[in-house]
Design a protein that fits this description.
Helix content: 10-25%
Largest sheet: 5 strands, mixed
Distance between the termini: 12 Å
Oligomer: single chain
Order of helices and strands: EEEHEEHEE
Structural class: alpha+beta
Radius of gyration: 16 Å
Number of strands: 7
Length: about 130
C-alpha cells in the first residue's frame, strides 16, 4: 500500500561523503543541502506519526538532459552521481523529517536515474510503501 507518493522538483544531488578537515575534524560538505531542503518541503505535509514498520522505497531520479543527446524520450543516466548516493540523501531526509523512525526500516529500495525527456522536469518521484514480503 502506498503511504507517500510525491514528486520533488529540483536538481537531484548525492549524499556527499564525510571529509576530514585540516585540523583533524570530520565534516559533511553542504553540497546537497538545497536538494535536501526541497525534499523536506515536499514531504512536510505528511502529518502522521513516524512509520515504524518494514517499508519499501521506490525512487525515480530525473536528471538534466545534455544537448548532445538531442530531443527525445527519457534515457538511462549512467554517469555521476551514483544512484546509491542519490537514494541515501532521500532516505536521510525521510528519517530526519520524521516520516520514518529510522532509514534502516527500508527493507527494499528500487532506484533508477535517467535523463529527463526533452520537455521533462528534473527531480525525483518518491514512493514509500508498507507492503512486506
Amino acid at each position: 500500500m502506498n503511504v507517500l507518493h510525491v514528486f520533488v522538483d529540483g536538481m537531484p544531488k548525492a549524499q556527499p561523503r564525510c571529509r576530514r578537515s585540516r585540523n583533524g575534524g570530520v565534516y559533511t560538505p553542504h553540497s546537497s543541502d538545497a536538494w535536501k531542503r526541497n525534499i523536506a518541503v515536499a514531504v512536510c505535509g505528511w502529518r502522521h506519526l513516524p512509520l515504524n514498520e518494514p517499508l519499501g522505497l521506490s525512487l525515480e531520479f530525473s536528471l538534466p538532459r545534455p544537448q548532445r543527446l538531442g530531443p527525445g524520450d527519457r534515457l538511462p543516466h549512467t554517469g555521476k552521481p551514483d544512484v546509491d548516493n542519490l537514494a541515501k540523501a532521500v532516505m536521510d531526509v525521510l528519517a530526519r523529517s520524521k516520516i520514518v523512525r529510522d532509514d534502516a526500516l527500508f527493507w527494499r529500495v528500487d532506484a533508477e536515474k535517467y535523463y529527463a525527456p526533452s520537455a521533462g522536469r528534473t527531480g525525483c518521484l518518491i514512493i514509500v510503501t508498507t507492503s512486506t514480503p
